[in-house]
Structure formats: structure tokens, C-alpha cells
Design brief:
The protein is of the alpha+beta class. Among the domains are: 104 residues, Phosphorylase Kinase, domain 1; 192 residues, Transferase(Phosphotransferase) domain 1 (Transferase(Phosphotransferase), domain 1). It is built from 13 helices and 10 strands. The strands form 3 sheets. The chain has a 5-stranded antiparallel beta sheet, with helices on one face. The N and C termini lie far apart (143 Å).
């Protein structure tokens, strides 16, 4: 298909076979001789636009060849900017190493190219717009080849999850999303490490998909990506969760019968619709409750219910691998906060009751103090009044005595008892 273009760009590499093909890209296993030794590699070729029909469509959308070229240049720049960001990690053990890449203007492609629909794509057929992207990589075993049928052991699934989460953590650190994570983009090296590929293609491919009204393969997309809504790191973790789910569930996705070898199109569509409708996914077959919990959280319908970062998912898987994982503690952060608040409510109620009781006690003490003060004040007032009365009476008696006011009524020699009687009669 694109062998002649590869030979024209890198003549030292000889194409041996085509081992994968996607919507836009075709990947070949290639070899070259280095000092008498055969070195294997892989070259991926992406054409945009891929067919004459796509070129015609993009011409209609943008109006002129210069506008089309400008749009395609934006897609190229998007890819280059991501590759520049990820350059420091090109040899990370969990990232497929990109040795070199080239953009070839289709005007410079001197040989005809035939795509999978046998449609001739060459200058003679008017394919003058667009580019070929050639990516030279290390050759690795595709996941689907390493594990026939997609079935894996629980240990393998955990290791794959940890390794790919490492790769996604690197993407997150560069503020980049993969947005197309699927088994075809995961590879295994000769040491058993799992590696993530196509990590710089998402932005450019999204632009092209929108331009050509094509959607990505929906099987491993998150619900929000399927609906063309904004995505975030949890969207990539959803896709990784599905790949892991498929690995432990005998090669079947949620709501697919793991015991049925060949599912019909209707059965696959029904399973997909149930997932995108928000139905909680069941635990996969042949899986520990702990791993099932991790996968169900990773594949939660609502983004806020999932792991929010690759580091969070990786930590959970590493804890499971070490035997220290606690399922009851592995819940979304907002649910933890709600649980903590709920636990605090009884304490708050108790504290409030104690405060109320203390307040009432304080009020009662104030009432007692006021009452006692009033009683004391009344006693003081009573004493003062009595003192005033006594003083007044004493003063009056002195006045009467000094002025002999009773001499005419009571003779001086009248006995006291008689005076008392007279006083009583006078009263």
C-alpha cells in the first residue's frame, strides 16, 4: 500500500509485512542491515486526507486549496508540538520510542499509492492536497498478538494497568490527552513491559476526524468522548479500564457474555448502548473483588466517580499488587468528604447540645444571681427603712420631750403605766 513511499524516504528499511491498519494509519514491520546484523523496526504511515472522496469533502469545506493547506498545516503543527513536549520521554520503558518522523507533501510523492478500498491515490488522479506522515519506531509485539483473544491473567492485567498508567501520567505532565487508547495502541517489549503508542496523534487526528466527519472507533471511548464533549484525564483512564476489563473478562467488554465465543453485531451494539446509557458495569468474570472494584471505578459513567489522575489509578493497582489495597477506602474524593462530614454531624450535634446545655446553665446561674441580688437589695432597703423610721421616731420623741408637748396631757408624776394607757387612749 505505502511500501514505495517508505522506500523513497528510508531506503535502508525493507518492508517485511503489514501488521496493523486503522482508520488513517497502516503500520509495517521493517528490517535493515546494520554491520551484518538484522535490526527490526516499525513504520507507521498516515495519509490525510486518505482518499479522493475525503479530499473532495475538505475542498468543499474550506473553499480553496490554500485554505485546505493551511488547515492541514495546523494539524501538522499540533502533532509536532506534542512530539516536542514528549521528546524527553521518548525512551521511557512504557512509551513506544519514536526514532524519527517525516511529513511528505503529496505533491512530492512520485509513486501511486493504493488504499484498502483499492482507490488509486496519486498525482495522476488529482491527489495534490495533503500529506503523508511517516513514523519510524521500535518494533514491539502488539497486545493482541501477545495475548491471543485478549485474555490475560489477573497479574498480567495489573502489570499492564500500572505500566500504561505510568505512560498516561507522562502525558498528563505535558498536559496532553491520548483520547484514543485501545488495545491496538498497546505493545509488549521483549522484557514484558507494556508500552503506549500513538500518544502524540490525538490532537491532529481529532482535527482530521472532525473535518472528514469520521468518528474514532467507539468501542473503547468514554461516554463523553463518544458524545464529542470535553474530555479530561479520567477519560483516558476509562479507556484503560476497558482494556483491562477485556483482558480479565475472557476478551469480552462489559455487558458482553464472556462465555459466548462469537458475539453478533446486535449483541455488541446492545452492550455498547447499555454502557453509554449510564448503566453500572458488572464485575468481570474470573476476577478478584478488589480488581473488580478498581475496574468498575475506572469505568464509572460519571467522570467525577472515576480516578482523577493516572497516579491515583496506578497507586491503587500497586497497592493491590503488594496486598495492601483497601477496597473500602478506594472511593472518589468527594464521597470521602461527604462521609467525613456525615461522621462529623453527630459530633457537631453533641457539641451543640452541650453548648445549649451550658448556655441554659449559664442563664439559670444568672437568674439565681439576679434573685439573690434582689433579695440582698430588699434586705438592705428594709434595714435602711427601719433605720430611717427609728431615727425619725427618736427625733420625734426628742422633739416632744424637749418641747414638753405632753406635759398638759400627762402630769410629770404620773406613773409610766398610766402614761401608756393615756397614750393608748389618745391614739
Amino acid at each position: 500500500m505505502y511500501e514505495s513511499i517508505i522506500n523513497g524516504v528510508w531506503p535502508e528499511w525493507k518492508v517485511r509485512e503489514k501488521f496493523s491498519e486503522g482508520i488513517y494509519g497502516v503500520t509495517y514491520r521493517v528490517e535493515k542491515n546494520v554491520s551484518g546484523s538484522v535490526v527490526e523496526g516499525a513504520i507507521k504511515v498516515i495519509a490525510f486526507p486518505k482518499t479522493a472522496a475525503e479530499e473532495e469533502l475538505i475542498r468543499k469545506q474550506h473553499g480553496s486549496d490554500s485554505s485546505v493547506q493551511k488547515f492541514l498545516q495546523e494539524a501538522i503543527n499540533e502533532y509536532r508540538s506534542k512530539m516536542k513536549l514528549l521528546e524527553p520521554f521518548r525512551y521511557h520503558r512504557n512509551m513506544v520510542s519514536v526514532e524519527e518522523y517525516r511529513f511528505i507533501n503529496k505533491k512530492d510523492a512520485a509513486v501511486p499509492v493504493v488504499d484498502s478500498t483499492t482507490e488509486l491515490l496519486s498525482k495522476s488522479e488529482g491527489m495534490s492536497l495533503g500529506y503523508y506522515l511517516l513514523i519510524q519506531m521500535e518494533y514491539l509485539t502488539p497486545l493482541n498478538s501477545a495475548y491471543k483473544g485478549g485474555a490475560m491473567t489477573e497479574s498480567d492485567v495489573i502489570r499492564m494497568g500500572i505500566d500504561i498508567a505510568n505512560a498516561l501520567e507522562i502525558c498528563e505532565s505535558c498536559r496532553s490527552l491520548h483520547n484514543n487508547l485501545k488495545p491496538e495502541n498497546i505493545f509488549v517489549d521483549d522484557k514484558g513491559n507494556f508500552q503506549l503508542g500513538d500518544y502524540a496523534l490525538s490532537g491532529a487526528m481529532d482535527m482530521l476526524a472532525n473535518a472528514f466527519t469520521k468518528k474514532k472507533v467507539t468501542t473503547f471511548l468514554s461516554p463523553e468522548a463518544f458524545k464529542n464533549e470535553p474530555t479530561d484525564p479520567s477519560s483516558d483512564l476509562y479507556s484503560l479500564g476497558l482494556v483491562m476489563y477485556r483482558g480479565i473478562n475472557k476478551g469480552k467488554l462489559p455487558f458482553q457474555d464472556a462465555d459466548v465465543a462469537n458475539l453478533s453485531f446486535a449483541q455488541k451494539k446492545d452492550a455498547l448502548n447499555r454502557r453509554f446509557a449510564g448503566e453500572a458495569i458488572p464485575a468481570p468474570a474470573g476476577c478478584s473483588p478488589e480488581l473488580a472494584h478498581i475496574l468498575q471505578r475506572a469505568c464509572a459513567f460519571a467522570p467525577q466517580d472515576r480516578y482523577q489522575s493516572a497516579d491515583e489509578l496506578r497507586s491503587a493497582l500497586q497497592a493491590l499488587e503488594k496486598g495492601t489495597y483497601k477496597m473500602e477506602e478506594d472511593i472518589p474524593e468527594y464521597q470521602k468528604e461527604a462521609a467525613e462530614a456525615k461522621a462529623v454531624i453527630p459530633e457537631l450535634a453533641e457539641a451543640e447540645a452541650a453548648a445549649q446545655e451550658a448556655a441554659e446553665e449559664g442563664k439559670e446561674k444568672k437568674r439565681i444571681r439576679r434573685r439573690r441580688k434582689k433579695e440582698k437589695d430588699n434586705v438592705i432597703i428594709g434595714v435602711l427603712v427601719a433605720a430611717i423610721v427609728v431615727i425619725a421616731l427618736g427625733t420625734a420623741l426628742v422633739y416632744i420631750s424637749e418641747n414638753h408637748l405632753l406635759d398638759d396631757v400627762i402630769p410629770k408624776d404620773t406613773p409610766t403605766a398610766v402614761v401608756e394607757i393615756v397614750d393608748m387612749e389618745q391614739a
